[in-house]
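Entry:
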Amino acid sequence: MSTKSASTTLTATQVQQAMARTQSLTSEEEKVVRMRTGAAVDRKAPLARKAAEGTEAADELLVMEMEILRAFRQHQAKLGAKKAPEARTTTEGRTKEKIVRALRKKR
């Protein structure tokens, strides 16, 4: 008779910790492991580059990254500029309504 081996369940966090410790997985192997276990990529980790240092492809990637960051910052600034006046008017409107209600109650 053969002995049964115990099966264990890995969580996504355990897989992420194990993948952080090892550097030997290829990108395809890492992708498969992530898909099978549901482990997400760390959002704060830098994007992996597929070009060797000093090549034209590396320069193109760097330019693309700079353009994306600039566009993202402009977008954030645009959103911040739009939301600021709305917040003030809403607060002023609530304050005005509160004062009007208090005055009506006084009568």
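The mean pLDDT is 79.
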